[in-house]
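--- STAGE predict ---
source: upstream dedup step, 1 unique chain passed
mode: sequence only
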Amino acid sequence: MSRPVELITATVRISFLNLTREASYKNNKPMQPHRCLGKTNIEITPVAMGCWPVTGITSVDVTRERSEATIRAAWHAGINFFDTAYMYGYDGESEKMIGDVLHDVRDEIVIATKCGLHWKNKASISDATPKRIIAECDESLLRLGTDRVELYYLHAPDPQVPIAESAGAIRELMQAGKVLSAGLSNASVAELTEFNAVCPLSAYQPHYNMLQREIEDSQIPWCIENSVSAMVYWPLMKGLLAGKLSRDHQFHPKDGRQKYPMFQGEEWERNHDFIDRLREIATDTGHSVPDLVINWTIQRSGITAALCGAKRPEQIVETAATLSWQLSQDAVRAIDQAIADRGPTVSRSAV
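--- STAGE serialize ---
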Protein backbone atom coordinates (compact mmCIF):
# COMPACT_ATOMS: atom_id res chain seq x y z
CA MET A 1 0.00 0.00 0.00
CA SER A 2 1.40 3.39 -0.96
CA ARG A 3 1.83 6.05 1.68
CA PRO A 4 -0.09 9.36 1.57
CA VAL A 5 1.75 12.11 -0.29
CA GLU A 6 1.85 14.31 2.84
CA LEU A 7 3.74 11.60 4.76
CA ILE A 8 6.19 11.08 1.91
CA THR A 9 6.79 14.83 1.81
CA ALA A 10 7.18 14.94 5.60
CA THR A 11 9.71 12.09 5.47
CA VAL A 12 11.82 13.94 2.92
CA ARG A 13 11.64 17.13 4.97
CA ILE A 14 12.51 15.30 8.18
CA SER A 15 15.48 13.60 6.53
CA PHE A 16 16.75 17.00 5.43
CA LEU A 17 16.26 18.41 8.93
CA ASN A 18 18.16 15.49 10.42
CA LEU A 19 21.13 16.16 8.16
CA THR A 20 20.92 19.86 8.99
CA ARG A 21 20.83 19.08 12.69
CA GLU A 22 23.90 16.83 12.46
CA ALA A 23 25.78 19.41 10.40
CA SER A 24 24.88 22.09 12.94
CA TYR A 25 26.30 20.00 15.79
CA LYS A 26 29.49 19.29 13.86
CA ASN A 27 29.98 23.01 13.22
CA ASN A 28 29.23 23.85 16.86
CA LYS A 29 26.33 26.07 15.86
CA PRO A 30 23.48 25.09 18.16
CA MET A 31 20.04 26.65 17.95
CA GLN A 32 18.65 28.74 20.82
CA PRO A 33 20.35 27.63 24.05
CA HIS A 34 18.62 25.00 26.12
CA ARG A 35 17.17 26.18 29.41
CA CYS A 36 17.35 24.53 32.82
CA LEU A 37 14.24 23.02 34.32
CA GLY A 38 13.79 24.83 37.63
CA LYS A 39 16.83 24.33 39.85
CA THR A 40 17.73 21.01 38.21
CA ASN A 41 20.46 20.38 35.65
CA ILE A 42 17.87 18.99 33.21
CA GLU A 43 18.14 21.02 30.00
CA ILE A 44 15.18 21.58 27.70
CA THR A 45 14.48 23.38 24.46
CA PRO A 46 12.36 26.53 24.96
CA VAL A 47 9.92 25.08 22.44
CA ALA A 48 8.35 21.80 23.54
CA MET A 49 5.95 19.50 21.77
CA GLY A 50 2.58 19.31 23.50
CA CYS A 51 1.26 15.83 22.79
CA TRP A 52 -2.47 16.27 23.38
CA PRO A 53 -3.50 16.80 19.71
CA VAL A 54 -1.88 13.57 18.48
CA THR A 55 -4.64 11.54 20.18
CA GLY A 56 -7.46 13.22 18.24
CA ILE A 57 -9.84 13.45 21.20
CA THR A 58 -10.84 17.03 20.38
CA SER A 59 -9.45 17.22 16.84
CA VAL A 60 -10.41 15.83 13.48
CA ASP A 61 -8.27 14.25 10.73
CA VAL A 62 -5.94 12.56 13.22
CA THR A 63 -4.36 9.18 12.42
CA ARG A 64 -1.87 7.09 14.36
CA GLU A 65 0.58 7.06 11.44
CA ARG A 66 0.49 10.83 11.03
CA SER A 67 0.74 11.42 14.78
CA GLU A 68 3.81 9.22 15.10
CA ALA A 69 5.37 11.03 12.14
CA THR A 70 4.68 14.32 13.93
CA ILE A 71 6.44 13.21 17.12
CA ARG A 72 9.40 12.00 15.08
CA ALA A 73 9.48 15.27 13.14
CA ALA A 74 9.65 17.27 16.39
CA TRP A 75 12.79 15.42 17.47
CA HIS A 76 14.50 15.75 14.11
CA ALA A 77 13.63 19.45 13.98
CA GLY A 78 15.53 20.10 17.22
CA ILE A 79 12.93 19.73 19.99
CA ASN A 80 14.03 17.61 22.94
CA PHE A 81 11.12 18.24 25.33
CA PHE A 82 7.88 16.23 25.02
CA ASP A 83 4.88 16.98 27.21
CA THR A 84 2.16 14.38 27.64
CA ALA A 85 -0.24 13.08 30.30
CA TYR A 86 -2.03 9.97 31.48
CA MET A 87 -5.29 11.34 30.06
CA TYR A 88 -3.90 12.36 26.65
CA GLY A 89 -5.89 9.64 24.97
CA TYR A 90 -8.67 7.55 26.49
CA ASP A 91 -6.16 4.75 27.11
CA GLY A 92 -2.85 6.60 27.37
CA GLU A 93 -2.31 6.68 23.59
CA SER A 94 -0.06 9.75 23.67
CA GLU A 95 2.35 8.15 26.12
CA LYS A 96 2.37 4.94 24.06
CA MET A 97 3.27 6.85 20.90
CA ILE A 98 6.16 8.67 22.56
CA GLY A 99 7.48 5.37 23.91
CA ASP A 100 7.18 3.67 20.53
CA VAL A 101 8.62 6.48 18.41
CA LEU A 102 11.40 7.86 20.60
CA HIS A 103 12.68 4.82 22.48
CA ASP A 104 15.95 4.86 20.51
CA VAL A 105 16.75 8.39 21.73
CA ARG A 106 15.34 8.05 25.26
CA ASP A 107 18.48 9.39 26.94
CA GLU A 108 18.51 12.45 24.68
CA ILE A 109 14.96 13.63 25.35
CA VAL A 110 13.08 15.07 28.31
CA ILE A 111 9.62 13.65 29.05
CA ALA A 112 6.97 15.34 31.15
CA THR A 113 3.77 13.51 32.00
CA LYS A 114 0.91 14.07 34.43
CA CYS A 115 -1.34 12.39 36.97
CA GLY A 116 -4.55 13.13 38.83
CA LEU A 117 -7.01 13.19 35.93
CA HIS A 118 -8.27 10.17 34.03
CA TRP A 119 -11.13 9.09 31.78
CA LYS A 120 -14.10 6.95 32.75
CA ASN A 121 -16.63 6.29 30.01
CA LYS A 122 -15.09 9.27 28.19
CA ALA A 123 -15.79 11.60 31.11
CA SER A 124 -12.93 13.36 32.89
CA ILE A 125 -12.48 12.18 36.49
CA SER A 126 -10.33 13.93 39.08
CA ASP A 127 -8.52 11.63 41.52
CA ALA A 128 -5.30 12.90 43.09
CA THR A 129 -5.21 10.55 46.06
CA PRO A 130 -1.69 9.26 46.81
CA LYS A 131 -2.66 5.68 45.93
CA ARG A 132 -4.00 6.73 42.54
CA ILE A 133 -1.00 8.98 41.78
CA ILE A 134 1.52 6.22 42.47
CA ALA A 135 -0.47 3.70 40.41
CA GLU A 136 -0.80 6.12 37.50
CA CYS A 137 2.94 6.78 37.52
CA ASP A 138 3.73 3.08 37.24
CA GLU A 139 1.26 2.74 34.37
CA SER A 140 2.72 5.78 32.59
CA LEU A 141 6.24 4.37 32.86
CA LEU A 142 5.07 1.12 31.27
CA ARG A 143 3.41 2.93 28.38
CA LEU A 144 6.42 5.17 27.86
CA GLY A 145 8.78 2.19 28.02
CA THR A 146 11.08 3.88 30.52
CA ASP A 147 12.15 3.63 34.14
CA ARG A 148 11.72 7.33 34.94
CA VAL A 149 10.26 10.61 33.75
CA GLU A 150 12.17 13.86 34.03
CA LEU A 151 9.10 15.84 35.09
CA TYR A 152 5.89 14.62 36.71
CA TYR A 153 2.95 16.99 37.14
CA LEU A 154 -0.14 16.91 39.22
CA HIS A 155 -2.46 17.68 36.29
CA ALA A 156 -4.79 19.79 38.41
CA PRO A 157 -5.53 20.06 42.14
CA ASP A 158 -8.27 17.69 43.26
CA PRO A 159 -10.86 19.59 45.32
CA GLN A 160 -11.55 16.40 47.30
CA VAL A 161 -7.91 15.78 48.27
CA PRO A 162 -5.62 18.11 50.27
CA ILE A 163 -2.93 19.23 47.86
CA ALA A 164 -0.26 18.43 50.46
CA GLU A 165 -1.26 14.75 50.23
CA SER A 166 -0.92 14.77 46.45
CA ALA A 167 2.45 16.51 46.75
CA GLY A 168 3.60 13.91 49.25
CA ALA A 169 2.89 11.11 46.78
CA ILE A 170 4.96 12.77 44.07
CA ARG A 171 7.75 13.31 46.59
CA GLU A 172 7.66 9.55 47.26
CA LEU A 173 8.02 8.89 43.54
CA MET A 174 11.03 11.22 43.43
CA GLN A 175 12.61 9.39 46.33
CA ALA A 176 12.07 6.11 44.47
CA GLY A 177 13.84 7.51 41.38
CA LYS A 178 10.78 7.14 39.15
CA VAL A 179 10.36 10.91 38.91
CA LEU A 180 13.29 13.34 38.62
CA SER A 181 11.38 16.57 39.28
CA ALA A 182 7.89 17.72 40.26
CA GLY A 183 5.39 19.98 38.56
CA LEU A 184 1.93 21.40 39.15
CA SER A 185 -0.52 22.48 36.47
CA ASN A 186 -3.64 24.66 36.48
CA ALA A 187 -3.10 25.98 40.00
CA SER A 188 -3.35 29.19 42.01
CA VAL A 189 -0.48 30.86 43.88
CA ALA A 190 -1.87 29.48 47.15
CA GLU A 191 -1.88 25.95 45.73
CA LEU A 192 1.62 26.35 44.33
CA THR A 193 2.84 27.52 47.72
CA GLU A 194 1.22 24.65 49.60
CA PHE A 195 2.50 22.02 47.17
CA ASN A 196 6.01 23.48 47.16
CA ALA A 197 6.21 23.32 50.95
CA VAL A 198 5.82 19.53 50.82
CA CYS A 199 7.51 18.69 47.50
CA PRO A 200 9.83 21.26 45.89
CA LEU A 201 8.48 22.27 42.51
CA SER A 202 10.55 22.56 39.37
CA ALA A 203 7.75 23.54 36.99
CA TYR A 204 4.35 25.15 36.79
CA GLN A 205 2.11 24.66 33.75
CA PRO A 206 -0.70 27.15 33.01
CA HIS A 207 -2.37 28.37 29.84
CA TYR A 208 -0.78 31.55 28.51
CA ASN A 209 -0.68 33.43 25.24
CA MET A 210 -0.96 36.93 23.82
CA LEU A 211 -4.70 36.96 24.54
CA GLN A 212 -4.64 35.18 27.92
CA ARG A 213 -2.09 36.81 30.21
CA GLU A 214 -3.76 36.44 33.62
CA ILE A 215 -0.70 34.82 35.21
CA GLU A 216 1.63 37.76 34.60
CA ASP A 217 0.56 39.52 37.81
CA SER A 218 0.33 36.46 40.04
CA GLN A 219 1.82 33.05 39.24
CA ILE A 220 4.72 34.27 37.11
CA PRO A 221 6.19 36.52 39.85
CA TRP A 222 5.82 33.59 42.25
CA CYS A 223 7.67 31.30 39.82
CA ILE A 224 10.50 33.79 39.37
CA GLU A 225 10.86 34.26 43.12
CA ASN A 226 10.94 30.49 43.73
CA SER A 227 13.05 29.48 40.69
CA VAL A 228 10.20 27.47 39.23
CA SER A 229 9.98 27.12 35.45
CA ALA A 230 6.77 28.21 33.75
CA MET A 231 5.86 25.80 30.94
CA VAL A 232 2.93 27.38 29.19
CA TYR A 233 0.35 25.66 27.02
CA TRP A 234 -1.88 27.22 24.36
CA PRO A 235 0.78 29.70 23.11
CA LEU A 236 -1.15 29.69 19.81
CA MET A 237 -4.53 29.58 21.61
CA LYS A 238 -5.55 26.25 20.10
CA GLY A 239 -4.52 27.35 16.62
CA LEU A 240 -6.26 30.75 16.66
CA LEU A 241 -3.00 32.71 16.84
CA ALA A 242 -1.47 30.69 14.01
CA GLY A 243 -3.47 32.98 11.73
CA LYS A 244 -4.68 30.19 9.49
CA LEU A 245 -8.37 30.17 10.37
CA SER A 246 -10.44 32.45 8.16
CA ARG A 247 -13.11 34.74 9.58
CA ASP A 248 -15.81 32.57 8.00
CA HIS A 249 -14.27 29.27 9.18
CA GLN A 250 -16.88 26.61 9.92
CA PHE A 251 -15.91 24.33 12.77
CA HIS A 252 -16.49 20.59 12.53
CA PRO A 253 -19.13 19.46 15.07
CA LYS A 254 -16.45 17.44 16.89
CA ASP A 255 -14.00 20.37 17.05
CA GLY A 256 -13.77 21.24 20.76
CA ARG A 257 -12.64 24.82 20.13
CA GLN A 258 -16.19 26.02 19.60
CA LYS A 259 -16.86 26.04 23.35
CA TYR A 260 -14.22 28.72 24.01
CA PRO A 261 -15.29 32.40 23.89
CA MET A 262 -12.19 33.22 21.81
CA PHE A 263 -13.80 31.43 18.87
CA GLN A 264 -17.25 33.00 19.12
CA GLY A 265 -19.08 36.16 18.11
CA GLU A 266 -17.54 39.55 18.79
CA GLU A 267 -14.46 38.01 20.41
CA TRP A 268 -13.81 36.04 17.21
CA GLU A 269 -14.00 39.21 15.10
CA ARG A 270 -11.80 41.25 17.42
CA ASN A 271 -9.25 38.46 17.51
CA HIS A 272 -9.10 38.43 13.72
CA ASP A 273 -8.50 42.19 13.72
CA PHE A 274 -5.62 41.53 16.10
CA ILE A 275 -4.22 38.74 13.93
CA ASP A 276 -4.26 41.11 10.96
CA ARG A 277 -1.94 43.37 12.96
CA LEU A 278 0.31 40.41 13.71
CA ARG A 279 0.52 39.59 10.00
CA GLU A 280 1.89 43.05 9.30
CA ILE A 281 4.55 42.68 12.00
CA ALA A 282 5.39 39.15 10.83
CA THR A 283 5.91 40.41 7.28
CA ASP A 284 8.34 43.03 8.58
CA THR A 285 10.35 40.37 10.43
CA GLY A 286 10.38 37.94 7.51
CA HIS A 287 8.77 35.20 9.58
CA SER A 288 5.36 33.55 9.79
CA VAL A 289 2.66 34.54 12.26
CA PRO A 290 3.05 31.32 14.33
CA ASP A 291 6.81 31.87 14.50
CA LEU A 292 6.23 35.43 15.65
CA VAL A 293 3.75 34.40 18.35
CA ILE A 294 5.85 31.58 19.77
CA ASN A 295 9.05 33.62 19.69
CA TRP A 296 7.33 36.42 21.60
CA THR A 297 6.08 33.89 24.15
CA ILE A 298 9.44 32.32 24.96
CA GLN A 299 11.01 35.76 25.33
CA ARG A 300 8.56 36.79 28.07
CA SER A 301 9.95 37.20 31.56
CA GLY A 302 9.55 34.03 33.62
CA ILE A 303 8.56 31.80 30.71
CA THR A 304 10.90 28.82 30.32
CA ALA A 305 9.15 26.94 27.53
CA ALA A 306 6.11 27.06 25.28
CA LEU A 307 4.25 23.80 24.69
CA CYS A 308 3.23 23.66 21.06
CA GLY A 309 0.67 21.13 19.94
CA ALA A 310 0.68 19.60 16.48
CA LYS A 311 -1.04 16.77 14.66
CA ARG A 312 0.87 16.91 11.38
CA PRO A 313 4.65 16.88 10.78
CA GLU A 314 4.71 20.16 8.84
CA GLN A 315 3.06 21.96 11.78
CA ILE A 316 5.74 21.04 14.32
CA VAL A 317 8.53 21.59 11.78
CA GLU A 318 7.33 25.16 11.28
CA THR A 319 7.04 25.64 15.03
CA ALA A 320 10.55 24.32 15.68
CA ALA A 321 11.97 26.91 13.29
CA THR A 322 11.38 29.41 16.11
CA LEU A 323 14.42 27.92 17.84
CA SER A 324 16.77 29.44 15.27
CA TRP A 325 16.05 33.18 15.73
CA GLN A 326 14.90 35.88 18.17
CA LEU A 327 12.57 38.85 17.82
CA SER A 328 14.09 42.31 17.81
CA GLN A 329 13.07 44.74 20.55
CA ASP A 330 11.32 46.88 17.93
CA ALA A 331 9.18 43.90 16.92
CA VAL A 332 8.41 43.11 20.57
CA ARG A 333 7.27 46.68 21.14
CA ALA A 334 5.05 46.56 18.05
CA ILE A 335 3.45 43.32 19.28
CA ASP A 336 2.92 44.68 22.78
CA GLN A 337 1.19 47.74 21.32
CA ALA A 338 -1.09 45.53 19.21
CA ILE A 339 -1.99 43.55 22.34
CA ALA A 340 -2.77 46.76 24.24
CA ASP A 341 -4.94 47.99 21.38
CA ARG A 342 -6.81 44.65 21.29
CA GLY A 343 -7.92 45.26 24.87
CA PRO A 344 -9.35 42.85 27.48
CA THR A 345 -10.42 39.42 26.32
CA VAL A 346 -12.97 36.86 27.47
CA SER A 347 -10.87 33.95 28.70
CA ARG A 348 -11.61 30.38 29.70
CA SER A 349 -9.28 27.74 31.15
CA ALA A 350 -8.87 24.13 30.05
CA VAL A 351 -9.97 22.61 33.37
